[in-house]
Amino acid sequence: TEWHNIVAWTKLAEFAGKYLKKGKCVYVEGRIQTSSYGEENNKKYKTEIVAETIRFVGSASDSDRSGGGSYSAPSGESDFGGAPSSGGSAPVVEDDLPF
Description:
Elements: E1 5-7, H1 10-19, E2 26-37, E3 44-56, H2 60-66, E4 70-72
Parallel strand pairs: 1-3
Antiparallel strand pairs: 2-3, 3-4
């Protein structure tokens, strides 16, 4: 298992706060952002994924019980101080996965 820090803004953050629960399988699409902090001689780095799309993964009954299916932030809405995102994304189809 690998754990990642996910950052969501505005309506995408509201969606995540309302529907995501611990242990829920989700697909997150976004961009990687690395930043540094600390003093010059003891600099530390953190890497986060700035979410642009969140989708539930699993059976349809799992997402029906949670009250939602997916949410994509409108173009540019999820970016914080950056260029607008490219907008929509292709739907994830389980049959297309290589594993």
